[in-house]
Each structure stands twice: as C-alpha cells, then as structure tokens.
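Quick start: what a row looks like.
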Amino acid sequence: MKQVLLMLIFASILLSCNSEPIDSIPNINESTRTKVNTNKKEAGSTSITAPVKTIPPFYSPKGSFSVVFPDTPKEHEHTTTSEIGKIELTQYIYGKDDTDAWVASFSDYPKKMIQLGNKEQLLKGIKSRILEDLRATVLFEEKIKLEDKYDGLSFVAKAKKKNLNITYKIFLVKNRVYQLSMYSSVGPIQAQDSIAFFGSFELIPKEYSEASN
C-alpha cells in the first residue's frame, strides 16, 4: 500500500489523451450524504443504546473543501513540470494497517487551458493516467455532478497485480481539479464506507476559506 500511495502522488496530476465512452449522468445530492443515527429509544423499550460516535470533517482552507476521513490525514505537497507548465498538487492521505487508504487532493490548472480545452477530455485523461500507472482495469464508470453544476467523473477499478480495489471521483471546479479516492487490498470497498467518504465532500465558501487562512 505504501508503494501505491507513492505512485499516486505523481500520477494524479498528469494528463493523457485516452478516452472511453460514458453514458449515464447521475448527480450527488443530500441522499448520498452521511447520515447520523441518533439511536432514539423506541416507546416501550427498556434497552439503552450508546450514541453513535461521529467523526468531525477535515477542513482544508487552502483547498476550499471539507471531507470526512476515518482519522486525521497527512498533508503532502508536490510540484510537477508538464507541457502546460508547473502544476502544484496538495494531497491529504490517511492509511490504515497498510491495507486501506483514503486520499483527497486538489491542483490548479492554467485558466486558459480550461477555457480553451475540453473539460470532459481533461477528466478522462486524468482517469486514464491513474489506470495506466496502477495497471488497473475499469469495472464501472459514470459522469457525475458536484453541486449540480461542476463536471465530474466517477469510476471503480481493479488492479489485479496488486489485488487493489479502487474507487475514484474527479471534479473540475473552474480551473481546480479535486480528486477523491479510496483503496483497499483486502476486498471490495464497502458501500457504506464509500458513501461516508465521498458523500461528505463539500466545497467551502470562499469567504470562510479566506477567513481561515
């Protein structure tokens, strides 16, 4: 898992021209948000149920987003030089028992590139490079939306050589690319874990982000 995370640091901001057809367009809404179980005692019940422990969101003021990790992630910053110039990548990574990992990252691309380029191609290019570097095969993918207005791409993949299960979401917000991913080497990623992580992702209003710096 540690080798995989090192590969992700350098793979997630590179572009590729590969593309594949995508046909379904769901969206992310409140139904996918993490639900808090208050465990209220039913009438006539004599048993006492302990309240469910909730994990507070992790905030990245400079990334202008929040997301719920299982625990506090470590921050990594990198600068990569590409054909379009220098791109700075900030990643937040949490690993568990060398078998599971959660990653949230953001990187800013030149505004002119986003204005003149193909947004869908950019998202699919990032996906293709991730799959290439991990030697993974897509099992399922779909177009998605963040806040019903920002383009995104979601996919589930499997890297047989490393027996790695991958769930990934990419969002393009103006000229900023957000990437959220989960990895497991001990079996498929559970739906409830996926919803708890991806469903908790929210953009922070600019005013709040600036005030927190």
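That is the whole record. Confidence is low (pLDDT under 50) at residues 9-47. The two ends are 33 Å apart (CA to CA).
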